[in-house]
Amino acid sequence: DTAVSQTPKYLVTQMGNDKSIKCEQNLGHDTMYWYKQDSKKFLKIMFSYNNKELIINETVPNRFSPKSPDKAHLNLHINSLELGDSAVYFCASSGGPRPFFGPGTRLTVL
Amino acid sequence: QKEVEQNSGPLSVPEGAIASLNCTYSDRGSQSFFWYRQYSGKSPELIMSIYSNGDKEDGRFTAQLNKASQYVSLLIRDSQPSDSATYLCAVAYGQNFVFGPGTRLSVLP
Fold first, then answer.
1. For residues B8 and B23, is the Cβ–Cβ distance under 8 A?
2. d(CA B35, CA B93)
3. Interface of B with A (CB under 8 A)
4. Which residue does chain B place closest to A38, by CA atoms?
């Protein structure tokens, strides 16, 4: 009965690899987000989708590509991983004024 | 550039005291304001939302909003060690939510 779920919870990989993080929400929300939280705990929006359409695309390297197959899912694919990509990535969804967050995926690039 | 500012802390208060957390924002057009709490290793969880000037109380928490001064605060009364966490201020700009850097609160027993 988890509202917003993400997989995997932890991801450890080598520089240069390609990886994906999956997100699903069962709240019936129309809007989904990807946020990145760095080591200083700063939570920054990366992307937002509304009903499968991209509505926010902050200044993010084009190695990051979101995909929304339907409004309940928003996946994040990262190409050619770099050390600076190490962070916690949170998926969130919103059906009204504020987002609900998933548990996060801790990505470590070695 | 829409910005949200907070003191990073840490803010240390003794158990039972009032903890006061502050936040300022740059865009006068903002209408919705939120406080999230984030325990170490966990995701942010919403604790308060406020939309109009004045105070809003929920249990031990009071959110205060002053749109003229572009200022939002969170008061935690009778602070408990379990309140020790990072508190994130968030401001809604349309469908975008901009978060402040968070204030780390430590409640000392």
1. no
2. 15
3. 32, 34, 38, 42-46, 49, 51, 86, 88, 90, 92, 95-99, 101-102
4. B101
Give the SS3 label for residue B41: coil
- The answer to whether A82 and A64 are in contact (CB under 8 A) is no
B29-51, pLDDT tens digit by residue? Answer: 888 999 999 999 999 999 999 99
How far, in whole angstroms, is CA A106 from its chain's centroid? 11
Residues B75, B20: contact at Cβ < 8 Å? yes
Across the range B7-36, mean pLDDT stands at 92
- Give chain B positions within 8 Å (CB) of A50: 95
Cα B7 to chain centroid, rounded: 11
Place of tokens 């695309």: A57
Would you put residue B59 in left (φ > 0), alpha (ψ -120 to 50) or beta?
Answer: left
Encoding tokens for residue A64?
């990051």
